[in-house]
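Reply to dn_fold:

You asked what the input looked like. This is it:
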Amino acid sequence: PSRFDRVFLIPEPDEELRGRYLRHQLGEDAPGELAWLARDTEGYSVAFLKELLLQARLGAVRAGRDALVEEDLRAALATTREHLRLASAGLQDRGSVGFA
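and this is what came back:
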């Protein structure tokens, strides 16, 4: 009691909201149109979208670039997809303890 009194289910954002979030976070750094990225991040929470952008930015830095390119976003998408798969697999094993 008192440590975790409530469990809230926050649904993943839909494609439109993911696109708005990505455009907002990238602003002028957005490398072109992001519709493909909003579409390809189905099932991503805002936390996973944030991680995707962090991974993309780190990829650009490792490559010595000051700005993101689409290649950075695609590489980050591949990485975060694996993280999402592993996280989802872990949740399935928790039974009915408030996770849906």
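DSSP finds four helices and no strands in the chain.
Hope that clears it up.
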